[in-house]
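Re: the request from the purification team.
They wanted to know what the chain is likely to look like in 3D before they choose a buffer screen. I agreed to run a prediction and write the result into the notebook, where they can find it.
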Amino acid sequence: MPGDIMLIMRFHLVSGEDVSVMSEDFSGEPEALEAIARALDERRSLVLTQARYGGESDLNGVVINLANVVSVRVLKTSSAEAGQYL
């Protein structure tokens, strides 16, 4: 069930690029990591219904193809020391 927590998900791609998405789809870091791990295991995309990509101000739906993702970090803040890696 979506909560009021805004999480920052940082995806590190095979190409070396880092992509950040802010999402309210999860109630906390463990739930987000579980959903990401499940999508990776099932070789499917991650679907977010309440997300902000880049500098957008509105919440939108975002589909993330995880095929070229090397690692994922989920943070509650923008601190480089927070979060967990898969």
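For the purification team: Strands lie at 7-13, 18-23, 46-53, 60-64, 69-75, 84-85.
Please add any questions underneath this entry.
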